[in-house]
């Protein structure tokens, strides 16, 4: 349904039937169909609160390769409140000097809609992880080394796309995958299909034109709704209203008698649907009449923004509700940062050896990625979808200055999925009662005597489970192959317990100890609202 007007109301007969509908579309619906239909009064759904359950939800997962520097990520002026065992919270608006040297003040204007999460751990290899989407310790696709068979072969974007709790009807594009300039960098995003098989982003996700071609067939970029025939407008509105009515039909609060009444009404709608024509409906959202810039460009900022404009447009126009965006080396590097060419070794050395040459270049690289993320978040906010979305930013491992370990992944979320997820908070899941795993003092020069103690936290799996729970999914919806939970919970590859000075081994030992509650369907307290 249209999100653009911002004028929401409930379409009611006798002030009873709660179905969310845009007022502009409502007027067009009434004018177009006249008195052909009589909406039944449903006593069992008298509460208007039920209307909130019909809101659409949107999911975007953004990932950047290589981890950040821990010391320059979090701020040091912490004043956290313990809200649950090993869960500490501080409001983002209390960080008066910005959030750490890397994030700084770049999100202050939208901080009430963000959460920054500390203490989400992976239990995989000391390498480039599948964890951002699948919580599996297999590697990303790599021309030299590609394990290609993850311990858990299902990614969250596919699980969401297969759920009728996300898509009530067959989606036009189940998942819009964008892997900008794939092929110009080493670590390509490699997704998983419904059967767990490896799939790379197609041509539609590598270039601006290819991405637009994948989306534009479902929207009208020239004149939008004005180009539609009256029959097509009517058909679109009937389709829209029929979809909302079917959602009401699935409510457990609906009595048997009301379900029969509403079933008869749906039959009437189906008849009207056939009478008003078969032309492909096009959304009447004014946003869908806007043509994004589709030309290719060497400017990385403009290139990424054009792609993100298309992704936001696809969400606004009902083309998709799930997107993945892989911020790789080639797409993320801005030549103005003076971090060397886009040739792999120079970028690799910059982001992996920031501890040797100083934190400045490391911060530049990550701020480039964060600016792209900020643009996506603000775009979703501008078109009115952010509050019903979750836009995730994370990395394939934790720290580049300490190697490839997976302890405390950098995680930022924007949007609350309709109030289901916490926003405006810095949330830490560090277990500070069992001693820290490592003290990061001296790992990055130029920050005085400050250090960041690295503690064990909670499994990253619980983060993904929390998002699916907020979307209304249950374990029966996301569990695969008879295994509890979502993702890998042990690392079976050789060397998992070693490497990185034994840091991964310490974390795995913690998770195997009595200090950790090993509930495979656990969600993150505080972050997921009850």
Q: What features would you describe in this structure?
A:
This protein is α/β, with parallel strands linked by helices and 530 residues long. Helices cover 30% and strands 12% of the residues. The chain has 15 helices and 17 strands. The chain has helices spanning 23-33, 100-103, 131-134, 156-162, 208-216, 230-249, 256-275, 300-316, 329-332, 344-352, 354-357, 360-382, 460-470, 475-478, 503-512; strands at 8-10, 20-22, 58-64, 81-84, 87-91, 114-118, 120-121, 176-178, 190-192, 198-200, 322-327, 389-395, 411-414, 425-428, 438-439, 453-454, 458-459. The protein has a 9-stranded mixed β-sheet, sandwiched between helices. A two-stranded antiparallel ribbon has the order 1-2. It has a two-stranded parallel sheet with strand order 7-17. A hairpin with a 5-residue loop joins strand 9 and strand 10. Helix 1 packs across helix 6 (230-249) and helix 5 (208-216) packs parallel to helix 8. The two termini are 27 Å apart.
Could you give the distance between the termini?
A: 27 Å
Name the beta content range.
5-15%
Q: Mean pLDDT across all residues, rounded?
A: 75
Percent helix range: 25-40%
Instruction: Give the overall silhouette.
Output: globular
Count of helix runs: 15
Low-confidence stretches: 1-36, 47-54, 140-148, 223-229, 278-283, 340-345, 444-449
Radius of gyration: 24 Å
**Largest sheet, spatial ordering of strands:** 4-5-14-6-13-12-3-11-8
Which class best fits the helix and strand makeup? alpha/beta
Strand element count: 17
Biggest sheet statistics: 9 strands, mixed
């Amino acid at each position: 349904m249209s999100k653009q007007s911002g004028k929401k109301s409930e379409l009611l007969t006798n002030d009873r039937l709660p179905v969310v509908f845009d007022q502009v579309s409502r007027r067009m619906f009434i004018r177009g169909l006249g008195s052909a239909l009589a909406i039944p009064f449903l006593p069992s759904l008298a509460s208007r609160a039920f209307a909130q359950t019909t809101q659409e939800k949107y999911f975007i997962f953004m990932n950047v390769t290589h981890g950040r520097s821990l010391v320059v990520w979090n701020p040091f002026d912490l004043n956290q409140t313990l809200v649950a065992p090993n869960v500490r919270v501080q409001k983002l608006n209390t960080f008066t000097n910005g959030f750490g040297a890397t994030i700084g003040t770049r999100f202050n204007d939208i901080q009430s809609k963000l959460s920054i999460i500390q203490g989400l751990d992976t239990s995989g290899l000391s390498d480039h992880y599948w964890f951002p989407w699948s919580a599996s310790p297999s590697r990303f696709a790599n021309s030299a080394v590609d394990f290609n068979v993850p311990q858990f072969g299902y990614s969250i974007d596919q699980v969401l796309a297969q759920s009728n709790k996300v898509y009530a009807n067959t989606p036009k594009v189940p998942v819009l995958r964008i892997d900008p300039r794939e092929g110009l960098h080493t670590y390509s995003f490699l997704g998983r299909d419904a059967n767990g098989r490896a799939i790379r982003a197609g041509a539609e996700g590598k270039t601006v034109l290819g991405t637009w071609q994948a989306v534009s067939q479902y929207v009208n970029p020239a004149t939008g709704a004005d180009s539609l025939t009256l029959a097509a407008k009517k058909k679109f509105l009937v389709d829209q209203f029929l979809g909302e009515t079917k959602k009401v039909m699935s409510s457990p609060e609906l009595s048997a008698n009301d379900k029969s009444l509403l079933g008869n009404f749906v039959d009437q709608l189906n008849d009207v649907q056939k009478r008003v024509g078969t032309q492909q409906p096009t959304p009447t959202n004014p946003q869908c009449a806007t043509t994004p810039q589709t030309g290719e460009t060497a400017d990385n900022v403009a290139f990424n923004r054009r792609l993100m404009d298309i992704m936001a447009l696809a969400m606004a126009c009902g083309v998709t509700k799930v997107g993945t965006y892989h911020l790789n080396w080639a797409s993320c590097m801005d030549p103005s940062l003076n971090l060397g060419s886009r040739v792999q070794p120079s970028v690799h050395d910059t982001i992996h050896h920031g501890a040797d040459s100083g934190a400045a270049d490391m911060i530049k690289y990550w701020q480039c990625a964060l600016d792209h993320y900020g643009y996506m978040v603000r775009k979703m906010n501008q078109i009115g979808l952010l509050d019903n979305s979750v836009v995730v930013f994370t990395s394939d491992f934790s720290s580049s200055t300490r190697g490839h370990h997976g302890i405390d992944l950098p995680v930022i979320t924007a949007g609350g999925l309709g109030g289901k997820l916490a926003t405006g908070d810095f949330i830490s899941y560090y277990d500070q009662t069992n001693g820290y795993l490592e003290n990061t003092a001296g790992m990055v020069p130029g920050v005085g005597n400050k250090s960041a103690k690295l503690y064990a936290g909670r499994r990253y799996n619980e983060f993904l489970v929390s998002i699916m729970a907020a979307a209304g999914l249950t374990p029966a919806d996301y569990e695969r192959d008879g295994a509890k939970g979502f993702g890998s919970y042990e690392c079976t590859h050789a060397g998992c317990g070693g490497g990185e000075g034994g840091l991964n081994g310490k974390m795995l030992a913690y998770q195997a100890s009595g200090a950790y509650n090993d509930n495979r369907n656990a969600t993150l307290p505080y972050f997921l609202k009850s």
